[in-house]
Amino acid sequence: MNICVIGGSGFIGSHLIDSIATKHTVTNVDKQLPEWENSNVMSVQADVRNYDALKNAIPNNTDYIILLAAEHRDDVSPTSLYYEVNVEGTHNVLKIMAEKNIEHIIFTSSVSVYGLNKKNPDELSGTDPFNHYGKSKLEAEKVLRRWFDNDRNGKSLIIIRPTVTFGPGNRGNVYNLLKQIASNRFVMVGRGRNRKSMAYVENVAGFISHCLDQHFKGYHLFNYIDKPDLATKELVHHAEAALGKKLFPIRIPYFIGYLGGMTLDIVSKFTKKKFSISAVRVKKFCATTQFSSATIQATNYSPKKSLAEGLEITIKSIVNEQ
Hints:
This protein is α/β, with parallel strands linked by helices. It has helices at 11-20, 51-57, 80-100, 132-150, 173-182, 201-214, 232-243, 254-271, 279-286, 294-297, 307-321, and strands spanning 2-6, 25-30, 41-45, 64-67, 104-108, 156-162, 164-166, 187-189, 195-200, 218-224, 226-231, 250-252. It has a domain at 2-170 and 196-227 and 290-304: 3-Layer(aba) Sandwich (Rossmann fold), CATH 3.40.50.720. The strands form three sheets. Strands 3-2-1-4-5-6-10 form a seven-stranded parallel beta sheet, sandwiched between helices. The chain is globular, with a radius of gyration of 20 Å. 39% of the residues are buried. The model has no long low-confidence stretch (mean pLDDT 91).
């Protein structure tokens, strides 16, 4: 098949293209050219917000769109960027799909649409996003559902909601957390009992590839999680096993950590300097974020790595960077 990956230069996209470029003809469309090289892949620069550039970048003979492009950091300013990229960008992709007669799309959303401290929500659970990223992803999902429901004949829409995704080379929240743990400079806010669902990047990319291979028809919605869900204390134990040494994290009460995050938010507002700690990150860190993976298990997908293996690989890569 002819696959167009929009946002393929990014973290998940680079792993995805590695896994599908040997089986399909792949075009990568991204606002930035990739750091990786693949002679089997054509990369074209285009921003999803620029309709004309995006239209020229997407090949006319495309069979499948995989839409990964997103504004996803939790410190984006102005917040309107979430909606310009995640919602209006989706509108642009669908308009171009109609003009080029492309009827199949895979969209990566996020479990953030469920909100915080929910009880293991599955795909049928209600949505309650607490931040602009989650709200914009949910709005994009609604745009895609309206597109699909308007005329279902011959179309396929697969929406994947990955949980927080980690792996070597990523510089997101999990990377920062694991780096602090591995460096024995980790401050545990709260008791560390809250459990979190996580996903290893190769497994997320592998599932997207699996969806292509299975030729799913119609509409499908999947959470993506690599079980088991781990408490923060258990993450420390995994780091100890990977490093072969005992770690002794500093512990502080939640209210002190949250107050510190609020203080840094105020400083950031006046100095325009971004900090790795903020009130929203402390809140997310201490929240329970567990999600059901029952639906994805029914697809017979076998992850490439266990969660423990993914953590070990990532922690060792962090140590090698130092």
